[in-house]
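Troubleshooting log. The previous structure file for this entry was overwritten by mistake, so regenerating from the original sequence record. Sequence copied from the archived sheet and checked twice against the printout by T.R.
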Amino acid sequence: EPTACKRRKITTNVNVVDDDDENYESIDSSQMSGLSEHVVYKIDSPVSIKSHESVLITINKWQMDAHLVLYYDPKINDLNVIKAVHLRNNSGIVLAPGSVAALDHGRFVAQCAFTPMLPNDDQLINYGLDSTVSILRTTPLALQEVHTESIGIIYSEVDKVNLNVAPNGIDLQQIYIKRTRYLIKNNSLDRSVDKFYIDHVADPSLGGYLVTTQTNCIKSVMGFSRFELKLEPQQEIEFIVDEQAKHSKKIFQASGLESFLERQVPELIQLKLIDEKTIDLLEKIIKYKYVEQVLRHMIDSKITDSQIRTWTPKRDLIPTSLFDKSVAILDTQVNIRQLETKIKSRE
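Regenerated output below.
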């Protein structure tokens, strides 16, 4: 599986990362050998085909590693388990694309597309749905976790002339842990399942999760893992897959900062991730934002009763003189509207 190579050049004071995006997940000519060109097979004896005739020619026979498996892939079928042949190309040659027929004890069960295979490649060839194994995939809320790694203060420019900056919000570096629970049951009374696969694709949100579960993992690439289980008759298994993502969460709104102080700061104090100096600075940011909000509404003359009711519980954050002036402006606006109504009624 191709991977990305990232080179880092280090100087005395500056780290420069040179990402060659053109070669990201690229395949060189040796890896493409046999797929980027026509695959030609030689047969032992020439065969002539007359006009309007068709013929089935045996080119060669190869005995390859193959296992009957059951697997679950929600991208293909979210409800049912799929019957498949796990085929590995150990023939040492390139197998060209085409179609393949699946026979079960001499009985034709399916004809599927066959993708090309380089030596040592493997693929799953589906040939039907299974009705004996049931599976349920859920992401219970109780299993999900979010941990804060660090807290940073965000500063914004307030004076473009002197380039002065002031604290404006916070930046939370968080680790999100997502857990997917698979409940699998073999409903058969006498048949065991020696190979049961779960094909799990990581969540692409938050910049992409990384699957961290290694138990029973038989194949893993970026954003994808395959897990192998064995099921005895009537056996029920709970299997949980963990994913992890790092994400930066920025909070600027006063309400969001207040909620952070009330709900998360007590726990962060115990974990020693925040100190009193940072808490004091956050409280000043919140107070500044409410004062700024009141001043902005006063300048725009857009103070309403609902706005006053919103600010009333925050009297400890808004200077008394400023709050009283906002109430006076609202009263003046009400009086002006009443006078305008009287004037219009007398015209």
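Residues 7-34+61-131 form one domain. Archived copy saved in two places this time.
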